[in-house]
């Protein structure tokens, strides 16, 4: 089973962001994963819609925006305007999740919901039929370069089974955090369809093309 590779720019060299994203596109990644952090929902502050707008000019790849922010409804229009192909909000940050998912879809953007490691799958029960994607956080959000939480693999498999049984096999399972060449195949076998990879792509040690080729070898 194959999967798409979404390169997270969080660990890219921000002094050369356009070049880094172009190298990732050249190397054959499928999506650019844009980690937006507000310094409140997560203990880190990254960037806003202006960077997404600049990325839109730097690549033709889909921009996969991950909003790790409280009150994402305030930022969704600006990221849609900036050209986001998908916008994922955190379950734990939304008071009116159905309204927020509807807001994303009404703007012509694919809606996703992300679950932190300790947030149970059952919280998705009412919203699942309205989603294009579920993002399973396999690290505690806020930083790149963390270790994959091993309990994530069974969570992915249980979600894949639930989607199959509910006639929702079209819903993507995106997994985010700590994904490397040595765990990618296991994550895909569990049912993930999109793998977010940050530091294993933009490590700064080997060229991006080499990193992506090493990852791809395990993508099936
Ligand atoms: C963490 C972000 C992830 C992270 C992935 O909060 O959501 O997208 O950048 O980076 P790695 O692959 O280095 O764990
Ligand atoms: Zn992310």
Task: List low-pLDDT spans.
Answer: none
Radius of gyration: 16 Å
List of distinct ligands in this structure: D-xylitol-5-phosphate, zinc ion
Multimeric state: single chain
Helix content: 25-40%
The sequence of SSEs as H and E is EHEHEHEHEEHEHEH
Structure summary, number of beta strands: 8
Any idea what the shape is?
A: globular
Number of distinct helices: 7
Major sheet: 8 strands, parallel, barrel
Largest sheet, order of strands side by side? 1-2-3-4-5-6-7-8
Strand content: 15-25%
Structural class, judged by helices and strands?
Answer: alpha/beta
The CA-CA distance between the termini, in Å, is 6 Å
Average pLDDT over all residues = 97
Give an overview of the whole structure.
- By secondary structure, the protein is an alpha/beta fold.
- It is built from 7 helices and 8 strands, in the order βαβαβαβαββαβαβα.
- The chain has helices spanning 17-27, 49-58, 76-81, 97-106, 152-165, 184-189, 208-216; strands spanning 4-8, 31-37, 63-68, 84-90, 110-115, 133-137, 172-176, 194-197.
- The chain has an 8-stranded parallel β-barrel, surrounded by 4 helices.
- Strand 2, helix 2 (49-58) and strand 3 (63-68) form a beta-alpha-beta unit.
- Helix 1 (17-27) packs parallel to helix 7 (208-216).
- The longest helix is centred in the last third of the chain and has 14 residues, at 152-165.
- The protein binds D-xylitol-5-phosphate and zinc ion (ZN).
- The site of D-xylitol-5-phosphate has 22 residues, from strand 2, strand 3 and strand 8.
């Amino acid at each position: 089973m194959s999967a798409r590779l979404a390169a997270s720019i969080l660990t890219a060299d921000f002094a050369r962001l356009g070049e880094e994203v172009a190298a990732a596109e050249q190397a054959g990644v499928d999506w650019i994963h844009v980690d937006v952090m507000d310094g409140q929902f997560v203990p880190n502050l990254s960037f806003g819609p202006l960077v997404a707008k600049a990325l839109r000019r730097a690549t033709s790849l889909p921009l996969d925006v991950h909003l790790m922010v409280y009150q994402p409804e305030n930022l969704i229009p600006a990221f849609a305007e900036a050209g986001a192909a998908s916008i994922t909000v955190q379950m734990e940050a939304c008071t009116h999740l159905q309204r927020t998912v509807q807001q994303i879809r009404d703007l012509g953007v694919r809606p996703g919901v992300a679950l932190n490691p300790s947030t149970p799958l059952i919280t998705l029960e009412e919203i699942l039929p309205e989603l294009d994607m579920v993002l399973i956080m396999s690290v505690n959000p806020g930083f790149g370069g963390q270790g994959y939480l091993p309990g994530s693999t069974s969570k992915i498999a249980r979600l894949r089974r639930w989607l199959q049984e509910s006639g929702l096999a079209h819903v993507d399972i995106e997994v985010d955090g700590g994904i490397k060449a040595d765990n990618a195949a296991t994550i895909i076998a569990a049912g993930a369809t999109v793998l977010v990879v940050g530091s294993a792509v933009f490590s700064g040690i080997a060229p991006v093309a080499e990193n992506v080729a090493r990852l791809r070898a395990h993508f099936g």
